[in-house]
Design brief:
Shape: flat
Largest sheet: 17 strands, mixed
Distance between the termini: 51 Å
Oligomer: single chain
Number of domains: 4
Strand content: 35-45%
CATH class of the largest domain: Mainly Beta
CATH topology of the largest domain: Pectate Lyase C-like
Radius of gyration: 35 Å
Structural class: mainly beta
Helix content: under 10%
Number of strands: 52
Length: 634
């Protein structure tokens, strides 16, 4: 609804009563003796509420020069007012509804003593089922026995629900010949809906019913000589109200059309290549691509229906003014040697953001595999893509070839990596004996990895320690993530291939609200979430759903959620599939999960059941794609 402004009444007369404000207009008046008079002996326990009305002019209000607003109504424009009084607080009297028109709107309303709320509905026509405007007066109507109360109410018109009327008249010189199909108006909803094209005749008033809301109006005329004229407006439609528009074209309005094709493209690539054409940054440029070189071209760029000040060249560079919540439409109108060709093409729906700088509020943006592999390398031209920077994944990415982890034992990742609900597929690490393996090798204290899905992971290595899907070793925070696939580190050594986990191999940080559907194998300390959770580490509200966990050592620690030995700590509210098998030295073990120290019972990782599946799913609601269907795991 369109909030209305208030006017002050400075008339030198006693003012009491009711101030009604409609689309910027105030209704006020002097006291009227017929409204002041009340019965000499009022009924016991009652008083009066008086509404005094006046009148005001109906001037057109514009937000700017190119906005069509409804005409401002006067009080007599409304056929019906509905005053609905309801008791408030200790007032136990029944509600009361009074219907009035403009002739008796100021008559006193008798009410029982007490405090009342008032809601006023104004109807444009007596048969309307929906009001045109609404206002209220809450908690300030205090009726005293034999007294009279008054108050002020602001009425707000509706710009949603219902429909209004658009009336227009377009004029052009009588000597200009335009056929019916060459005089058209394109009406485009700005809040969603179907674009409509209507045709009109010279000087003939036309009427069109439109749903309440906001529209872009583009008028285009083409005369018999092939010359064109045009204009654009923004239209506001209010429920049950009329928006009127008249425009007159002159002979000088018509120009020869441009014999060129125009399209709009984006010059891609911020300073570090952090942006692409669907996510432009401040500092990037829109280009009007002209198919035929034509001298004397003039340009005007638009943001929505508003011309952008100073944007009069063949290119337009985004500024901080273009950063907005929501989407902006950018277009260009071109004139050639004074002839208006109305050559707008390829309106781009773009959300413009500031140039990323790697901070938490402006993270570097990752669009493809090359960007992902550049994280933490600080190599030209992305010299500031360091291990301490913040990043956001902007696209689903499928990796090719062998993955090199981000950070390692001596070069830990300390930044923030926001998966943004996206997916990284086919992360593969094979044929190595290196330690600290995963998407991240080693995440340090203060780091964050969140909102990320790793699917179809294939880590198959030999004699490698600290191996996990998200991180080989986690000292930071991992939350709202999930991993599917296989993580394996095999060995014949008595010291290698430990710990191994679906989310993290070794954890001294925090793992929260994560789940895995994964097969995990190692020599010792193997589990579906974290191979080892050391002192100070926490694993909370995670779910392990993999087919199996396996250890090759006959006496090694193993668990569905966490695989510490001799006893896990820092675990709370974790669950696991009771169907997840435990393999010890190649054979299914019936006792591997019998000890609470091996993460089966209590907070160490309850088996999923019908009773707790809903609880577990609730923990995972913020994972990319939402919580998994757990029905197959109990």
């Amino acid at each position: 609804m369109n909030k209305i402004l208030t006017m002050n009444n400075k008339m030198k007369c006693i003012f009491f009563g009711f101030l009604i404000l409609l689309t910027g207009m105030a209704f006020y008046g002097c006291s009227n003796s017929s409204f002041e008079s009340v019965p000499e002996t009022p009924q016991t326990g009652t008083g009066y509420f008086v509404l005094t009305n006046g009148s005001a002019g109906a001037d057109r209000e514009t937000l700017h020069a190119q906005t069509i607003m409804p005409e401002k109504p006067v009080v007599t424009n409304f056929a019906l007012y509905e005053l609905m009084f309801s008791p408030r607080g200790t007032n136990s009297n029944p509600a009361k509804t009074v219907k009035r028109d403009s002739t008796d709107l100021g008559d006193p309303v008798e009410l029982a003593t007490g405090t009342w709320d008032l809601v006023v509905y104004a109807y444009k026509n007596g048969l309307d089922t929906q009001p045109t405007a609404q206002g209220d007066l809450l908690g300030v109507i205090d009726i005293k026995n034999g007294g009279t109360s008054s108050g002020n109410v602001t009425l707000t018109t509706f710009v949603s629900g219902g429909a209004g009327t658009f009336n227009w008249t377009i004029n052009w010189p009588s000597g200009v010949t335009i056929s019916g199909s060459d005089a058209k108006m394109i009406i485009t909803p700005l809040n969603g809906g179907t674009e409509q094209t209507v045709y009109f005749s010279n000087g003939t008033p036309d009427t069109y019913s439109l749903d309440s809301g906001y529209y872009r109006v583009f008028v285009e005329l083409t005369n018999s000589a092939g010359q064109t004229a045009g204009l654009r407006e923004t239209l506001h439609i209010h429920r049950n109200m009329e928006s009127n528009f008249t425009h007159t074209f002159t002979n000088s309005s018509f120009f020869a059309p441009l014999s060129i094709m125009v399209s709009i493209g984006v010059q891609v690539g911020g300073e570090n290549g952090d942006c692409d054409w669907t996510d432009p940054c401040v500092g990037e440029t829109l280009v009007a691509n002209i198919s035929i070189a034509t001298p004397g071209l003039k340009y005007q760029w638009y943001r929505g229906a508003t011309p952008i000040s100073g944007a009069t060249g063949a290119t337009y560079t985004f500024t901080s003014a273009d950063i907005g919540a929501g989407t902006n439409d950018f277009s260009v109108m071109i004139t050639c040697n004074g002839y208006n060709g109305i050559a707008t093409d390829s309106l781009l729906a773009l959300t413009v953001v500031e140039e990323p700088d790697g901070t938490a509020t402006k993270p570097f943006r990752i669009y493809n595999e090359t960007d992902l592999r550049d994280v933490g390398k600080a190599a030209a031209p992305k010299g500031d893509w360091t291990l301490s920077a913040s990043y956001r994944l902007m696209r689903n990415i499928t990796l090719t070839g062998t993955w090199t982890p981000i950070g390692g034992q001596s070069t830990q990742y300390t930044g923030t990596f926001d998966g943004n609900g996206k997916t990284i597929a086919d992360l593969t690490i094979t044929g190595t004996t290196a330690n600290y393996l995963g998407l991240f090798g080693h995440t340090d204290t203060g780091s964050e990895v969140m909102n990320l899905a790793l699917v179809d992971v294939n880590i198959s290595v030999t004699d490698s320690n600290n191996v996990g899907g998200i991180a080989g070793y986690n000292r930071g925070t991992i939350q709202n993530c999930y991993v599917t696939g296989s993580v394996s580190s095999t060995t014949t050594s008595s010291t290698a291939s430990t710990p191994v986990g679906g989310i993290a191999g070794n954890n001294t940080g925090s793992v929260k609200n994560c789940y895995t559907i994964i097969t995990v194998t190692g020599r010792a300390n193997v589990a579906g979430i974290a191979g080892t959770n050391q002192t100070g580490g926490t694993i909370q509200e995670c779910v392990a759903l993999g087919q199996s966990v396996s250890v090759t050592a006959s006496t090694a620690a193993i668990g569905r959620v966490e695989g510490s030995y001799p006893s896990p700590s820092g675990l709370a509210n974790n669950y696991a599939s009771s169907n997840m098998e435990a393999y010890v030295s190649g054979s299914i073990s019936s006792t591997a999960f019998s000890n609470t120290n091996k993460t089966l019972t209590g907070n160490c990782g309850e088996n999923l059941s019908i009773g707790n599946a809903a609880i577990a799913a609730g923990y995972l609601a913020d994972c990319p794609g939402g919580a998994p269907d757990l029905s197959a795991y109990y």
